Amino acid sequence: VSIGSLSLALEPSKWTCTGSIWMITIGYTTQLVPTMIRVSAIIKIVRASMKMKVVNVNRKVLLTRSIGLSAIAALYCTVWTIYDPPQSQTSLLVSEDKNDFGE
């Protein structure tokens, strides 16, 4: 996420625009999805404990879900980049110079 944010400060180009979107989207996905999956597993354990049941948490399943959702985010970025690539735009600078019309 931080690499994507820093690349937004660079000179706009096709590569910096695309790279920053990819880094931010994939970065947030790899940070938040595992946390949400762990919270879901904890909720499952708490609900089962209220019924006095034993719960087995398979780490392989948790990892597979995390990787799968990150792969979906990468696929989303790929499709987005192919069909609607970002366009770089330069920003205008404000100066004290005036044109013939006084603007």
Task: Considering the chains and any ligands shown, give keywords for the structure.
103 residues, mainly alpha
Care to describe what's here?
By secondary structure, the protein is an all-alpha fold. The chain is 66% helix and 0% strand. It is built from 3 helices and no strands. It has helices spanning 2-7, 14-50, 59-83. It is elongated.
Q: How much strand content do the residues show?
A: under 5%
Largest sheet: none
pLDDT < 50 stretches: none
What portion of residues is helical? 55-70%
- Overall residue-averaged pLDDT value: 83
**Strand elements, count:** 0
Going by helix content, strand content and strand pairing, the class is: mainly alpha
Radius of gyration: 23 Å
Number of helices: 3
Distance linking N and C termini: 41 Å
> SSE order in H/E notation?
HHH
Shape: elongated
Short recap of the structure:
This protein is mainly alpha-helical.
Give the topology, please.
Elements: H1 2-7, H2 14-50, H3 59-83
Helix pairs in contact: 2-3
